[in-house]
Amino acid sequence: MSSGRGSLADHPVIVIIGVAAAVVGLIVGVKELKGTDVAPPSAAAPTTTDTDTTPRTPAATQAAPTQEEDMPAPDEEPNASEPAREPVTQPVEEEPSRAAAVQSPEHTARLVVRIKLGSSGKTGPDTYRVGSRPGANTEVYDDTGRLDRGCYVQWTLSRGSEVVRRVTSGRCRPPGITLFNFEDSLDEPGSYTLKADVTTDWRQTGTESVTFNVVPG
């Protein structure tokens, strides 16, 4: 053994030649391996498993609707010769309400005014006793009929040329009471005139007056 080791050390050229031959052989083997058509195992394309048989389709093909989805329903089949028509909504004519049918009165006609004197203390057709308190009311009419509210009366009682009493009533029809009260205005004999000047909220006007005598009782 010792003799063998000594022989290799004595021939270094042989060792160098062996190493060079081994390197050349390795290089040749690598070139042959690259020249082959077979791809190395690490670069081989992935294989499909036996259990996966579903064909792969592009995303655009999957998003396309099927023929059945594109088919219109039998009762919705459009007519290619006519454009699509939108439904026309006919206006609904509402029946006018009862309140709208009966319009509010116009109150444009001239007023007709009547003075109604009471009968307390009356002794003749146009005669009253001294101290009588007959009272007075009005009847006022226009084209709508007899007026009640919205109608005002300015009462003026005169004896000869002297104004004895003046009162304003807020209505033309008595609300269960007398619109004009004489109070003590007829305590003296003489010729009296009672005048009623009427106005309304519709700017209508009317005037009426009555004359009577007061005599000692």
Write a structural description.
There is one protein chain. The chain has 217 residues and is α+β, with helices and mostly antiparallel strands. A six-stranded mixed sheet has the order 2-3-9-8-6-7, with no helix packed on it. Mean pLDDT is 74; it is low at 1-5, 38-51, 57-61, 63-69 and 91-103. It has helices spanning 2-10, 12-35, 59-63, 67-70, 98-101, and strands at 112-117, 122-124, 127-129, 136-142, 145-146, 151-159, 162-169, 190-200, 205-215. A hairpin with a 2-residue loop joins strand 4 (136-142) and strand 5 (145-146).
- Which stretches are low in confidence, meaning pLDDT under 50 for 5 or more residues running? 1-5, 38-51, 57-61, 63-69, 91-103
What is the CA-based Rg, rounded? Answer: 64 Å
Gap from first CA to last CA: 189 Å
Q: What strand order characterises the main sheet? A: 2-3-9-8-6-7
Helix content: 10-25%
Total number of helical segments? 5
Secondary structure class reads alpha+beta
Mind summarizing the main beta sheet?
6 strands, mixed
Strand portion: 25-35%
User: What is the 3D shape?
Assistant: rod-shaped
Count of DSSP strands: 9
Question: How confident overall, as mean pLDDT?
Answer: 74
Give the ordered list of helices and strands: HHHHHEEEEEEEEE
Q: Outline of this structure?
A:
With 217 residues, the protein is α+β, with helices and mostly antiparallel strands.
Set down the secondary structure blueprint.
Blueprint: H1 2-10, H2 12-35, H3 59-63, H4 67-70, H5 98-101, E1 112-117, E2 122-124, E3 127-129, E4 136-142, E5 145-146, E6 151-159, E7 162-169, E8 190-200, E9 205-215
Parallel strand pairs: 3-9
Antiparallel strand pairs: 1-4, 2-3, 4-5, 6-7, 6-8, 8-9
